[in-house]
């Protein structure tokens, strides 16, 4: 019998492909699941199974799959000007129009964008940019950037170093010098007996201790996701961000808010910084910028920082695909859709409250120690004992739950024993009901 099409693709994967974040031996033994098409909030695999994508791809397909306007924008731009660079005193209309559109939706006083090809490149850029900034200001010794354990800022050398994923640090002798980490504001996992706000203040105060330990004149910036995504949808207690801001102001340290996940409506505000009322100095962006239809990222920069950069001569930094015209045209159209269809406003007023109400119901499930969420983000902590928050000793419970989800037509991701969702912002209430019914069924199967 000849191989099926799926088996042929799986063989191609085994024989020729090295996929990201994969254990190759396990993957090759099982065979990759092949996704062939998508529409709205659904995917279809090569076996014809319909799957509700509660992760919006990788937290990015904010306007949902199948938006013809984005296809049109890309093909129009490819015909007009498929490529040109922004180096050496040139520019092109799509990148300029996009920079202006981004300035219109980002927090007040953030009016310039440096374009990159991804979120990781945005974080490489931000590291170089803050060091360049302090050097121009005559304080070149202000070089150290403080990040957080279990934060995620990408997979390039700078991205991994700024992030606090210890398993990633372990591969490749990272972090690079000049980067320090403090604890994350993960109350459920690390808060002990403290109430959330007391814990929030306690972890924020670690920032001050780290500043004093390294030397207050040596710290360039603090980098953090407004809500940690890849770390497990970790929502800081209310006390956390105000305390962090107070400390940064005291020591004249820049705030880098990594908005790669939280940006473009995920929290029900345009940016996670809006949700928390923060005023960052630099914001790496990507993902929702193009709703994932084409790769693109960038760093949005506060006016005061730009004024200094303007005085600093050439910034020796950039990418062949910085502000790529086709990506810029798609991003511009994506922002037009988000604005004209009032998607962010609808998330805030209707979709997110409905999702969060239904999500909170899962807290009653015997396996769930906490059901938390903000906007279109949600997490479930799987526990053996709800009262004591004791974890399962079986390390694979999250993975088991994730596999049940896939087998039952749902993409939900596992971060250890934390199950997470981040569905397209355009998901309907009926689809949320379907999502919840599937999650419940998969929890039952996992129990
Ligand atoms: N920053 C955050 C907060 C992310 O979640 C990610 C990716 O998940 C990145 C940066 C890296 O983005 P990319 O995968 O586009 O390089």
From TrEMBL:
Cofactor(s) annotated in UniProt: pyridoxal 5'-phosphate
InterPro entries: Aminotrans_3 (IPR005814), Aminotrans_3_PPA_site (IPR049704), PyrdxlP-dep_Trfase (IPR015424), PyrdxlP-dep_Trfase_major (IPR015421), PyrdxlP-dep_Trfase_small (IPR015422)
CDD domains per UniProt: OAT_like
One Pfam family per UniProt: Aminotran_3
Keywords on record: Aminotransferase, Pyridoxal phosphate, Transferase
A GO molecular-function descriptor: transaminase activity
Family: Belongs to the class-III pyridoxal-phosphate-dependent aminotransferase family.
Name of the protein described by the UniProt record: Aspartate aminotransferase family protein
Lineage: Bacteria, Pseudomonadati, Pseudomonadota, Gammaproteobacteria, Pseudomonadales
